[in-house]
Amino acid sequence: MNEITEYQLVETCLQEKMDNDTTRCNLCLWRCKIAHGQRGFCQAHVNRNGTLYNLSYGILSSIDIDPIEDKPVKHYRPGTRVMSVGSYGCSFRCGGCHNLDISWGVEALDDLAKGESTEVWVTPQSLIDTALRAGVQGIAFTYSEPAVWLEYVIDVSKLAHKAGLYTVYVSNSYITDEALELAAPYIDVLCSDIKSMRDDFYQDICRPAKVKQVLHSIKKAHELGIHVETRTNIIPGKNDNPDEYYEIACWVRDNLGADSPWHITRFFPAYKLSHLPSTPESSLLEAEKAAKRAGLKNIYVYNDKGCDCAEENKPIEAYLNSSAEELHQIKKCAASCCGDEGVLLKKYEINETDKNEGSKL
Ligand code: SF4
């Protein structure tokens, strides 16, 4: 692909044409079937006349720099620092999400779709230059599910490797085999949630994954040679069952190895789970005990932090070598393929107030 120098919709890298200009997105396991003018569940991919495009290529919701241990990743290049970046759009709708504005990013993606966005847009090369200037050793894709802007993740990761930087992919692992295989050569580390061993947890809290789908992707990443570390956020009354801790630990032991790190994190109330208490320390210690019983050798317990959130980040402008005026110019698609319609979507063409979540057929 030619270098992209202005904001534009970029063709979704895994798409499959179907009848009547309907196209299937094969990035994540939603495998959304999307008709002209509609967007997928994540809201970041749109069908224009039978071709799918990613709306969020190069659009950054947040940047931060911290130790790789904060991702959390403990067994890959310890002591180094990463530049973490995220965009808008996610394949899950987690009831306890701390990052709603930037992970789901419905408003930001709507503005992009309407051609009214002033979000920050950064070319892959500028992001690498920014990382090198900051003196970090790696780039992490995090804050929302990286699969929904995989086109950008891959382009940045290729350049990162050329520049001697490693790459970290922080994920829910609700990703297709095809997408994982496409990204694997450029991803060094996967830090994946194993949120539960119960399908009903995934259905109730995150929609729509099944445990076996998530575990399959994690194992596949490991088989593809990616360094994998897993994490479970213990939520009171939801997944704080000692049998479940043991099951997760046994799965990690049997599929990733007894040495594979398992991170046990504390839940802090947010969004639809605001009524729940924070995880008591006793549950975290019980999970650790179960993991030791299962034979895991590297168990990390976090009492102070619930997730790799972006709530306290500095403004993006603080990291980039451009003026705020330049960064926040209106983002209109620079490509001409949509004609005079620009990127306006059916959602707005038909009914401005239609707030349907997702457009999965
Ligand atoms: S949710 Fe988004 S990334 Fe996933 S299949 Fe649907 S359009 Fe593609």
Automatic annotation (TrEMBL):
Keyword Metal-binding recorded? yes
List the CDD domains.
Answer: Radical_SAM
Q: Which cofactor does it need?
A: [4Fe-4S] cluster
Residue sites binding [4Fe-4S] cluster per the record: 90, 94, 97
Record text on cofactor binding: Binds 1 [4Fe-4S] cluster. The cluster is coordinated with 3 cysteines and an exchangeable S-adenosyl-L-methionine.
Domain (Radical SAM core) spans 75-308
- Which top-rank group of organisms is this from? Bacteria
Task: Establish whether keyword Transmembrane is in the entry.
Answer: no
Q: Which UniProt keywords apply?
A: 4Fe-4S, Carbohydrate metabolism, Glucose metabolism, Iron, Iron-sulfur, Metal-binding, S-adenosyl-L-methionine
Query: What name is this protein filed under?
Result: AmmeMemoRadiSam system radical SAM enzyme
Q: Which organism is it from?
A: endosymbiont of Galathealinum brachiosum
Q: What is the lineage of its organism?
A: Bacteria, Pseudomonadati, Pseudomonadota, Gammaproteobacteria, sulfur-oxidizing symbionts
Question: Per UniProt, what is the name of the gene that codes for the protein in this document?
Answer: amrS
